[in-house]
Amino acid sequence: MLTVETIRKIRLSVHRDGKSIRQTSKDLHLSRNTVRRAIRSGETLLQYERQKQPIPKLGPFIEMLNGRLEEDEKLPRKLRRTAQILFEDIQLNGYEGGYDSVRRYIQRWRNERKISRGDVYIPLTFAPGEAFQFDWSHEWVEIGGASLKVKVAHLRLCYSRYFLCIAYPRETQEMVFDAHIKAFEFFGGVCRKGIYDNLKTVVNKIIGGKERNFNSRFVQFSSHYLFNPVSCTPGAGWEKGQVENQVGLARRRFFTPKIKAKDFKELNDTLKEQCINWAKSHKHPTFSDKTVWETYEEEKPCMISLPPPFDGYGERPARVTSSSLVTYDRNRYSVECSQAGRIVQIRVYADRIMIVSDGRVVGEHERHFGENKTVFNPWHYVSVLERKPGALRNGAPFKDWDLPTGMGNVLNGLQNRFVDWDRQFVAILNAVPLYGLEAVDKACEDALKMRAVSKEVVINLLNRNQEKDFAADVGIPPHLILKQEPIADCRRYESLMKGECNVAQ
Question: In this structure, which topology does domain 131-302 adopt according to CATH?
Answer without folding.
Answer: Nucleotidyltransferase; domain 5 (3.30.420)
